[in-house]
Every structure is written in C-alpha cells, then in structure tokens.
Amino acid sequence: METLEKQNSKDSQENFRLNKYLSHCGVASRRAADELIAQGRVQINGKVVTELGISVDPQKHTIAVDGEVIRLPDKYTYVLLNKPKNTITTVKDERGRQTVMDLLPLRGRFYPVGRLDRNSTGALILTNDGELAHRLMHPRFEIEKAYFVRLDKPLVEKDRMKLLRGVKIDRKPARVEEVSFVEKSKRTEIGVVLHEGRNRQIRKMFEALDYDVKTLDRVAYANLTCEGMKRGEWRHLTKKEVSGLKSLVKLT
Q1: Which residue, of 51, 87, 121, 233, has the greatest Cβ tally within 10 A?
Q2: Three-state DSSP class for 60?
C-alpha cells in the first residue's frame, strides 16, 4: 500500500485527514470518525488503519468502513422536507415502516439533520454534506429550533417557568429558551424555542410535568420554515439558505 503520512499542514485539494474525509462523506463527525479508526473499523486499500492523523488522497486510496467503500458525493445536495406523521426519521427501517427517504427521489448517502419522532411533523433538513450535517447537530453551535405544541390541558404558569429554568429528563437537566402562548388557545397551544436537540426532548419535558403532547410540529429550523409546503412536500435549499446554514456553524 502506498505510504500514508500524517499531515500537519492545511489539507490540500487532493488530500484530507482521514477523519475529515469520513466526516465529509457523512459517515460520522470527526471525533466519532477518530473512534471508528481507533476501533480498527476503517480500511485503506484493503488494510486496517488505527493511527490517527493520517492523510489520504481519494484519487489514489480506497477508503472503507466495516468493509463498505466510502466515497465523496459528486455534488452536495440540500433539501428541506415538511415531514408528515407516521414517518420514521431515518435512512431505512428494519421493520419496513415508511421513512423520510421514501418521500424523496434522492440516491446515495443522505442524512436527516436531527430527528423528529414518528408522530412529529415539520421542518427537516436532509443532505449528503456530512460535515455541515454534523455541525448543525453539534450542541456547541446552539442551532435554534421552533415548535408548535398542542397539550391535553392548559399549561400553568409555574410549569412554564420550570420549562425555562430546566426540567430533569433522562437524569439530566433540559431547558427551553422561550415559551409563548397562541392567542385564544386557552394555554393549550404553545410555541417553544430551544437550542438543544436531545431525543424526544420536548415530549419528555412536558411528560415530566404531567402533560400529554397531542401535536408536535417543528415550524422552523435555523430560520428555515415550511411555509407554503404541504405535508410530505420537499424543496431544494437556495444557495443563500445553504450559505446561511454554513455561516451559523462557521463552515466556509
């Protein structure tokens, strides 16, 4: 196998650090990619590599993870989907249920940015740009997400304050940035804004306060909305929208 060297200078057009290459291919974040390498799950030209910091040239080297060859996409694609109910936010489902990918005429490695549970609806970004996807989901960048929530009973003021101060879920505190009431809803229809993105966070927070979430709709993700889109419809992001997302996560 051609000699592989650690690259201490800035990546050239042809060369990538291995963890960066895996991230750009959408396999994992750079930190998680380092773990894959250390675990011996990455192969270059058929040989397992475990050393971190190695530089690869995709034109000369064949890179694989768990035996599956990984390649950079020919072009990056960015899509906004208005996710309908009864759809799984995953690439494929072992139980044969409908996934978000079944709604899109896309081929290759596409990944949903964040998750919406099966019965939740609304704005969901999908892309084959792994580096952008991982940064958008990283808590360090505190990407803002806005939700419409319908409850089984009115939200009382003391519980609204608890949501803002923090509610313990899964043994860890979780909080939201804003809680507002929809006019004339008798406090059963709520607007919620948060920067975190933990699994089923909003549902769990309300459940911890003895409320049942009847409707959960993500109305905005990083200022992107599904305005004018029906459930199940999708569209490509504009260049300006993509640039805006990259700017939020300091990605040039």
Answers
A1: 87
A2: coil
DSSP 150-214: EESSPPPHHHHHHHHH-EEETTEEE--SEEEE-TTSTT-EEEEEES---TTHHHHHHHHTT--EE
The pTM of this model reads 0.83
| Segment 63-119, tens digit of pLDDT | 999 999 988 888 899 999 999 999 999 888 888 899 999 999 887 778 899 889 999
Q: Which helix (H) or strand (E) holds 193?
A: strand 189-194
DSSP category for residue 158: H
| CATH top-level class of 144-221 | alpha beta
117 is catalytic: yes
Token pair in block for residue 157? 């003021």
Protein fold of 16-69: 3.10.290
| Identified catalytic residue from 117, 152, 170, 217 | 117
Angstrom CA distances, 185 to 133, 181, 191, 252, stand at: 36, 7, 11, 43
**pLDDT tens track for 153-164:** 999 999 999 999
Query: Amino acid letter at 154?
Result: P
- CA quadruple 226, 228, 234, 235: dihedral sign: negative
